[in-house]
Structures are given as C-alpha cells and as structure tokens.
Design goal:
It contains six helices and eight strands; from the N terminus they run βββαβββββααααα. It has helices at about 40-45, 110-115, 125-135, 145-160, 180-185, 185-190; strands at about 10-15, 30-35, 35-40, 55, 80-85, 85-90, 95-100, 105-110. The strands form three sheets. Strands 1-7-8 form a three-stranded antiparallel β-sheet. The protein has a three-stranded antiparallel β-sheet with strand order 4-5-6, with no helix packed on it. The longest helix is centred in the C-terminal third of the chain and has 16 residues, at about 145-160.
C-alpha cells in the first residue's frame, strides 16, 4: 500500500546553538534563593545563562565533548539534546526543531526537512480552526468543534489530497493548492 502524509501546518525553528529556540526561555522558573521560594522570569534565566527548556546542552558521561559527531563532524560540545516522546535525541547545529501536532518537539535533519516541508503563510492548524470556530455562527449538528470548522477541515484535506473538488465543496483548485477555495466556500462546505 502507498500512503500520503496528511496536510498539516507545523511550527519549526532551525537550531544552531544553545538558546536558539524561541521557547527556550518562555516560562518562568521557580526555585529557592536564600532559603525563600522565588520565581525567576524567562528573561532573568536567559541573562543568568541557565539551562534552556527545549534543546538542552549535550551531556553524556560516556561521550567526550571533543568527540566528532558521526552525522555532521562537529564536536559534541557544539550539540544539543532534546527529549522527545520516543526518548532523547542529539541535535546537530543546523537541525530543525519541529513542534508536532501534540505539542511535542523533535529534531529533523536539514535535507529531510527541505524534502518534506515548504514555508507557508497559511495557518490551518487545528488550534487555529478551534479558535476560529468560536467566531463562526453555530451550524446544525455543532458538537464542540462545530460543523463549519469540521467542514473546513474536511475540505482542506480533500482539496489538498485530491487536487480537486470534494463532494462537500464546489470549489475547484489545482493540485497542491493551499485550500483557499474552501475559505471562500466555507458555507457550502459546512452545509453538506
């Protein structure tokens, strides 16, 4: 059998050194200072050069920091480490850090990233559709996500996968379209 990757919009940041990821210092940190509980802002943590949150320093007692990486040839001192749902992974300078559909982060080599993804201005993530759904008038059969938003998702996927008209949307778009027709035809998509 053959399969096509589902069309989704991802967030990604190319990593070159510790502190590169925009979420590394996004959260406050609680700790103890002089015997008292204290909260440090992300900015304070960055100024103090504390360990980051997404891609941490690479440290393993069994691998010297002077060892050359088998993937990129840089010394391991130049690398990061990221915890993923499948365990930890080494991050080479230049790797892309992708935020997945469940909010997880994982590294991707630049050549694989370039072959798999393209930059887009579209924001058809499920979170965006849920937020947009709040501003749409309720449609018949609304069940939390809402029939209009579900229709939009259906049409996005149908047009991108088939390169044409779905049975719920009269908008004809060329293969690889960015689903613009379904935004125009939202009411027809949801009426189905």
């Amino acid at each position: 059998m053959r399969y096509r990757k589902k069309p989704i919009v991802i967030e990604a940041t190319q990593w070159f050194k510790n502190g590169d990821h925009p979420q590394d210092y996004a959260n406050n940190r609680v700790g103890i200072e002089a015997g008292n509980v204290r909260t440090w802002t992300g900015q304070e943590a960055e100024e103090l050069e504390w360990e980051v949150e997404i891609v941490r320093y690479f440290r393993r007692p069994d691998v010297s920091g002077e060892t050359a990486c088998e993937h990129c040839g840089e010394t391991m001192h130049e690398h990061g480490w990221i915890d993923t749902l499948e365990g930890g992974h080494i991050v080479c300078p230049g790797d892309w850090i992708i935020t997945g559909v469940k909010g997880e982060n994982y590294p991707c080599k630049p050549d694989i990233f370039a072959a798999t993804y393209e930059e887009t201005e579209d924001d058809f993530s499920l979170a965006n559709v849920k937020a947009t759904n709040d501003s749409l008038e309720p449609a018949r059969g609304s069940n939390g996500l809402g029939a209009k938003a579900l229709g939009l998702l259906f049409c996005q996927q149908a047009l991108c996968l088939s390169g044409g008209t779905s049975n719920r949307c009269s908008s004809k778009q060329p293969t690889g379209s960015r689903w613009v027709g379904c935004l125009v035809e939202l009411s027809r998509c949801a009426a189905g």
